[in-house]
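Sat 14:20. Reprocessing the chain from the morning session after the first attempt stalled halfway. Input below, unchanged.
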Amino acid sequence: MTAKAMNSASVRDANRIYFQALANSRASLGNLSVLPVLIMFLVGIVTFGLSLLSADEGREVLSFVRDVNVVIIAISALFMALSVFRKLLYKFQVFFSVALAGMALGLVYGVCLLTVPLVAFVNVPDKRVSTVLFAVTGSVGLGVVAAAVVVHALMLRHRLRVGHSEERTIGNFVAVSRSNRSKIVWITFGLVAVVPNVLTSGQYLANSLGALGLIFFACVTPSLPVEFAYLAYLKSKDRAYWEARPPRLPKDERRRLARKTAMWVFGIAVALALFWVFAKNFSAGV
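Finished this time. Tokens:
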């Protein structure tokens, strides 16, 4: 075997080991019951706020975003419910891996959306200005996310050619990535957070932190859906990347887990309902 052939084989082995580790860690189908909860929580917070503001004249764009958020929450709730059927989950792994990639993209949307109101609504009393700022900030955020997806896809393509390192493979399990430590992050921090607040005596600190958070999350988090989507593609080609179905829990353990899940769902529903009532009464009083 030539040196080139040996190198090609080692690259394939490194990539195979990496994505098998990914399938059994961060991209495990077991996370299909976790990501929807995170999405519903993050998107739900913003949706409640937008529901209060969208009734104001000239803020129709907020109503559109709110309606989109409701659809995202409904889809997340559907997949959270489907994740209970473990046999179905591990039988149709390609479909649910695609769904997991979609949930990862929804998580990117949720964490980025959470920063937009900080930029648009804090220290911006004028309703028209804040609405325009919300639309512009959201559009810029979507553009940055789209560009970041392309960059992460190109980075993945490069790593597939040279082979994933052992450090990245281990990082799937310890959830540590040194790639986020970039000089660009510190330059962005200086330009977005420090400079404007020095010039304005800290008046726009919250807005700056929101913009900084949006840029950071929009640049870093899209790596998740990119790798999850490629793993789904690999699963469609080779069952070597499929996960082994975990052993069935004892009956008593399943009952305990079901009661715990029901309590969490009930608690979250009550908390959201109380928050909704409080927010409605507060806005009416104002």
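The radius of gyration is 22 Å.
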